């Protein structure tokens, strides 16, 4: 069991006028309306620091607090290899299955929490994220100045991130580019997820074939933008979904948003696909060029 967590948020213009129950039911679809009702009635949800009712209507600027009691988090690999560190930045190798940031059912079983235990005085801050099922290199800042410097590099597309991916099919060219826009679409549990969407934001991936097999292909992918789940979505949009991806199918959209026999709906955090961040190149805040490499798992080796 973890130690529980308190979620605190302020009522904005889009939420004012909603009842407390409507707010949580609409914004956090991972739980049913009945479950939110029980939490309100048991005093787990406070409005401006005091107990409230499900029917109370929200006003702009009020504060909602949800005291989530301790829960059993899913088991994940917690080993994190420090590839490089100095006073300004850190590069780590994340195992597949470990989330980078808290969310959903994960709090202490995350990369950020694990690093916070090792570095309680100056917890490193992730400059970018990897999906839970993606392994490999993650860049983190260790000072406010480094965070600003590295974040600016990321916005300017000056940090190079190279991935290995195992995709279904082998009919693609030796080198090809994918530029399908990526944006939000409806999801019955999370409210929305990212997928191929003509109204989405521009996205750019450069792909190079490393090895072909009868039913799959090993690729090297350089992403020039950093949209959520970009490689999974882009390769699926091109007709070559990642081997084992439980969510994104041909077209770059969810295979299904229907609950399975066990009552679960596929979400982006589900694992099973084969994707690894193998190389990372950047400029240190002192101006020095830096490059790192992380050996991929056997199925992603040439």
List keywords for this structure.
single chain; 302 residues; alpha+beta; Structural Genomics Hypothetical 15.5 Kd Protein In mrcA-pckA Intergenic Region, Chain A; Pseudouridine synthase; 3 domains; 4-stranded antiparallel β-sheet; globular
Task: Please explain how this structure is put together.
The chain has 302 residues and is an alpha+beta fold. The chain folds into three domains: 64 residues, Structural Genomics Hypothetical 15.5 Kd Protein In mrcA-pckA Intergenic Region, Chain A; 84 residues, 2-Layer Sandwich (Pseudouridine synthase), CATH 3.30.2350.10; 115 residues, 2-Layer Sandwich (Pseudouridine synthase). 15% of the residues lie in helices and 32% in strands. The protein is built from five helices and 18 strands. Strands 5, 6, 7, 8, 9, 10, 13, 14, 17 and 18 form a ten-stranded mixed sheet that branches. Strands 1-4-2-3 form a four-stranded antiparallel sheet. A two-stranded antiparallel ribbon has the order 11-12. β17 and β18 form a beta hairpin. The protein is globular and about 60 Å long. The two termini are 41 Å apart. The model has no long low-confidence stretch (mean pLDDT 95).
């Amino acid at each position: 069991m973890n130690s529980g967590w308190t979620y605190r948020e302020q009522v904005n213009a889009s939420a004012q006028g909603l009842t407390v129950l409507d707010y949580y039911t609409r914004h956090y679809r991972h739980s049913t309306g009945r479950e939110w009702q029980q939490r309100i009635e048991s005093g787990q949800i406070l409005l401006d620091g005091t107990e409230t009712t499900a029917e109370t209507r929200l006003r702009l600027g009020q504060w909602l607090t949800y005291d989530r009691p301790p829960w059993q988090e899913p088991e994940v690999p917690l080993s994190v290899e420090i590839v490089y560190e100095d006073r300004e930045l850190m590069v780590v190798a994340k195992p597949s299955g470990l989330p980078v940031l808290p969310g959903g059912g994960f709090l202490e079983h995350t990369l950020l929490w694990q690093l916070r235990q090792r570095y309680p005085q100056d917890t490193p801050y992730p400059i970018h994220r990897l999906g839970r099922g993606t392994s490999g290199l993650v860049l983190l800042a260790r000072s406010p100045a480094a965070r600003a410097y590295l974040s600016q590099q990321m916005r300017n597309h000056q940090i190079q991130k190279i991935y290995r991916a195992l995709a279904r099919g082998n009919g693609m060219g030796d080198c090809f580019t994918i530029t399908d826009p990526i944006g939000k679409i409806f999801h019955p549990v999370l409210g929305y997820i990212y997928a191929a969407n003509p109204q989405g934001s521009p996205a750019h991936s450069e792909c190079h074939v490393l090895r072909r097999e009868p039913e799959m292909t090993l690729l090297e992918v350089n992403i020039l933008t950093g949209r959520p789940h970009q490689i999974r979505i882009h390769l699926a949009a091109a007709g070559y979904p990642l081997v084992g991806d439980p969510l994104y199918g041909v077209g770059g959209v969810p295979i299904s948003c229907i609950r399975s026999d066990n009552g679960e709906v596929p979400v982006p955090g589900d694992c099973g696909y084969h994707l690894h961040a193998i190389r990372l190149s950047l400029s240190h805040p002192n101006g020095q060029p830096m490059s790192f490499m992380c050996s991929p798992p056997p199925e992603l080796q040439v």
